[in-house]
Amino acid sequence: RGSMATTERLGPSRTRRNSNKNILTRIRHGQISGGGLSRGTEMSEALLQERDHQAKWHGIPVMLQRLYDSSHLNSDLSHIHSIIKEVASFLSMEAMSFVTEERRTAQESTSPNTYTFDLFGGVDVSLQHVGTKAYRADVSDDIVKDCLSVLYNCCICMEGVTKSLASRDDFVMFLFTLMSNKKTFLQTATLIEDILGVRKEMIQLEGIPNLPSLVQSFNQQQLANFCRILSVTITEPDLGNDDKHTLLAKNAQQKTNLCPSHSEVNQVALLNIPGFIERLCKLATRKVSEASGASSLLLELQDWYTLLDNALVLDTLMQMATEDAEQSSTESPDESSLVTSPLRHSLPQSMKIVHEIMYKVEVLYVLCVLLIGRQRNQVHRMLAEFKLIPGLNNLFDKLIWRKQTSTHVLHGQNQNCDCSPEISFKIHFLRLLQSFSDHHENKYLLLNAQELNELSAISLKANIPEVEALVNTDRNLICDGKKGLLTRLLSVMKKEPAESSFRFWQARAVESFLRGSTSYADQVFLLKRGLLEHILFCIIDSGCKSRDVLQSYFDLLGELMKFNIDSFKRFNKYVNTEEKFQTFMTQINSSLVDSNMLVRCIILSLDRFESQTDDVRVVEVLSECSLLSYMVRVENRLTILFRLVNIINVQTLTQENVSCLNTSLVVLMLARRRGKLSFYLNALREKEYTEKYPGCLLNNFHNLLCFWQRHYLNKDKDSTCLENSSCILFTYWKETVSVLLDSDRTSLCAIASYIDEAYMDLGRDFLEV
């Protein structure tokens, strides 16, 4: 009888649980199949209330049903708003928990209220009430704002909701129109950002209704936040992994995609908006009134950072603080209004600084992407005209590289973590400088008047003509103050800790100033500021292990030393012991992919110096410099050539390692000039037989050169970089490759002559991809 009683007690409860599961199963089945129940609100309110407590739905299905019942033209809007706010309170708590606990699996168990809300049609009813604004004028901004917040919280907890919204093109376009309303801007912007992040197809900015007038209606705060959204629309999906994609795959993709990409079209659309670039420059360079206690910024952010992962979220928080002020004004509040707001006392004193930094991160990113796009020259002219560089120079000490007295750990990471807004800001700043200076005459805008005069004096003393770009520099657009931006960067670069991740970006930014046609004056300008000694210290004495940092220092050193006799004298003075020289060569030989650009510069410099033996200074350096003495030995150059050809093949060529192929070509072009090409090719053949893999090395090199022709002789390919960096005419590059690929086996300069008939065409099939 006891057993019977237990069964009787359990029976109804088990039945109710099964009933709850059956309801959920029926709804999900209806949503998938399109038949039967498609949302839970199609059931009676009585049934929903009966099941609510047992299923722990917290009344969400009943509230949603009441929202559906109120979805008509004459509905009571205040009643609707009260329901939406009640539902929103459940979802916002889950979203906050999801973010702070860093949960990334959208499951019923982790976000039960959000799951229930979605299952019972909450997303659809929210969309319905957001859309009502378009044809019902009395729908308040507060209703729309709360509905958008509900949708955003759903997106945070359930990726499926985000993907579903992203697939609705009409809804996405409608969201952009809502951004014209200052009261709903922040909620709309945060939702759009989430949606665009998961869209399979990039949105076309030209399709946004009245885009120019929309952007022009934004205040500076809104424009900065809009840049966060724009970053998704102007960036190629694989931009961050550019070096990881093979050139073979890229070339094949370019053949199939003859039209401009969506991101390129979007970049043009932005540049066509009147005043857009000018406003971004003003945002990037505006100053911040630093409050007292700014040095404790990182410490104050400890409890806030999980919320403040971007300026949009921070703005939402600040909007909460100024809601009372907003009611009496349609304009977006100035940040200074926080001083009188009730929540002001809860916000850190230095919040305005980190707020401004977050804005600038978004703006600098957009400017950087535009600078490396197809419209580069147009963007360059505009950035110069609107004085971006002198503006950043004025911010350098007080904001960009301001002193930090706190070593507080931020968001569980150290100061070299990209999670920090300040770290991200510095990296974006350095990337912008790199893009701005790279192979462009506007690079001299990074100097002030005194520094430009110094360059002129260096050229005059060396009895060489001034660089044309220097002569043509508009001095109304250059840096002002005691130091230019390049000089300020050099100062912080030399003080950077050995383990700092900034070293890589700093070296890249300075190297870009030197890239292009070699300028003796530019090199001496940097030599006088101790740059060469700093680089050698980092390579030889600092214990640096980072391959990325070492590669950036090798590349910079190569540009600094190329064809410059003073640089080689300074090198010899610093590397004054056999131990130091061996350490230096060990670093070079440990990875030729990283150091081959430096090797190329040394070989090119040696070749030029050997033709200038009537100069006593050159003869002296040739006889004393350990680096030149090493490279003058043919066996060492052959060893380098063997390794360069061996570490790459057509299938593994990337933007990062294709330089190895070009460096090997430089070695052979210089040999050809001296009539020794056949000697080098024969040495490669002997190396193959010594290593017992006849045909492999030379066939691989033959395949690489076939690819080189297809890649560099493409009509869209800019070959001036090869010509400028080597001071060898591109016609000679082409001729040398043609000679090497000659099919005439009697030619002593053709690779085919050194491959036995039995081993010809080894691996040739791999080229046809």
UniProtKB/TrEMBL annotation:
InterPro entries on file: TRPC4AP (IPR022162)
Q: Which GO terms describe its biological process?
A: ubiquitin-dependent protein catabolic process
Please give the residue ranges the record annotates as the region Disordered: 1-21
Q: Return the GO cellular component terms, semicolon-separated.
A: Cul4A-RING E3 ubiquitin ligase complex
Q: Which domain of life is it from?
A: Eukaryota
Task: Provide a Gene Ontology MF annotation, just one.
Answer: phosphatase binding
Instruction: Please give the PANTHER family that the UniProt record associates with this protein.
Output: SHORT TRANSIENT RECEPTOR POTENTIAL CHANNEL 4-ASSOCIATED PROTEIN, TRANSIENT RECEPTOR POTENTIAL CHANNEL 4-ASSOCIATED PROTEIN TCPC4AP
Put simply, this protein is called: Transient receptor potential cation channel, subfamily C, member 4 associated protein a
Q: What lineage does UniProt assign to this protein's organism?
A: Eukaryota, Metazoa, Chordata, Craniata, Vertebrata
